[in-house]
Input
Amino acid sequence: MWRDEAVTFQVARRTVPQIWRLLHGVDAVHGLYYLLMHAVLAVRPGEVVLRLPSVCAAAVTAGLVAALGARLVRPRVGLWAGLLYAVTPMAGHYAQEGRSYALVAAGATGATLLFVRAVQGDSWWAYGTVLGLTCWLHEFAVLLLLAHAVSLALARAGSGVWRGWGRVSGGVVLSLLPMVLVSRAQAAQVAWLRRPTAATADGLWRGFLGSTPGVYWVCLALALLGLAGLVGRRGEVTCAGVALPLTVVPPVTLMLASQFSPLYVDRYVLYALGGAPLLVAGGADWVAGMAGRLRLGGRRVPTLAITNPPLRPRLASRSRLVTLAGVLAVALALLHHLPLLRADRSPDTRPDDLAAVSRLAARKSGPGDPVLFLPVQTRNVAITYPGAFRGARDVALVEGAAESGTLYGREAGPGELRRRLARLDRVWVVADQALLAGRWIPRNPTERAKLAVLAADFAGCEEVVRDGVTVRLYVRRARPRHPAPALRADGGSPATEPSGRSPLPPTPPRPARW
Output
């Protein structure tokens, strides 16, 4: 597990009251997901079970993308789009991660399918229910409402459709207000985000259409051709009219808002990926239709089948061959993406590997050894993989994470921490490598006290570094020893100099400062 998955793992294994207490301080936006994972991990806690919901959700999303293509165009478009979603590296990346984003993508795609059905005459309440639950999995899924509004505008929907959608949308927004109010008070959690740039947008678009140049340019050309049917008959939603807003509107809206208050990360809009395969498959279907029309002298296949019944078996056989050709094209895209997909299964593609760090700590430290975590977030290693730290003394910890209603536990204040460290001659430190190197300075007084005491009173000895996390042994520096003053030759007191003047008092040592 990497650090975000580890948070899911350790929070979901708490009791429901402990999870509820935590959400009042941090991670309210993930509250519903933590409660869901609490039930899942109650069956068998482990890394595989942690990721199973994401794997299943990604498979469901591929099926829902296929259902959208089949409903809006024809079955082969759905087949191509669903398969293309399944082999996209970005979808595969989050399919194997123990976080909520794959589930949000499944909910958003299901809500889009229900939106299409509602426009075509079904009930709006199923759409509102699914979208409301999806927004409680992650509040930025509410941007899907803007995409659906653009789809209605492109379809030139009637007033009755707008009223039905408006009532349901208002209910979804109102139900989300409590989470919005609580999460705004927790905005410090995303203070590390930066404003997205043009390079950010280009990276997201390439992630949607293909991570290798060959696949990207072919998919981009087909997606542009897929825009040919953007606007259909009045009141009718089209494949491009649904897929283009789904792909573009949520990411662009979040990127524009992030120019004023940075909130954008690509995983927050993963659910927009479902529109890109629909555009590509729609473009491929348009190319296949044009090629077939040229072979048949410009006549459409359905018209020819009606006017010339003996040709129907031949036309059906040709349609099956076209479908198979599209499947083979997706298989070729998979072969192009295979090195990326295989590399993405390695822990090295994640920001850190807490299991590897815990193994290093277990190999270096022993039972009863004092351990200091710097900053407090690195305690995630010990909470997630406690076996490696069994018997170790956590120097700074006052109250555990679950008991204190925090993610990483409550630590002693600077004064108490200095007293605790003063009693130690050696301490193992699990630290952020960038922090030890001075590439950033913590604001928390306790973290600054840790750095100050280690710099003034201890010397680093052996260390091991893994994925930006350092496990280092600190040993107390030898205390200066002042020799006894020698007696004067005449037997006088050493306090008096030959000149008769008393020596100046020694200058007291300056306190160590950070």
User: Anything to note?
Assistant: Strands lie at 370-374, 393-394, 397-399, 410-411, 426-432, 458-466, 469-476. The longest strand covers residues 458-466.
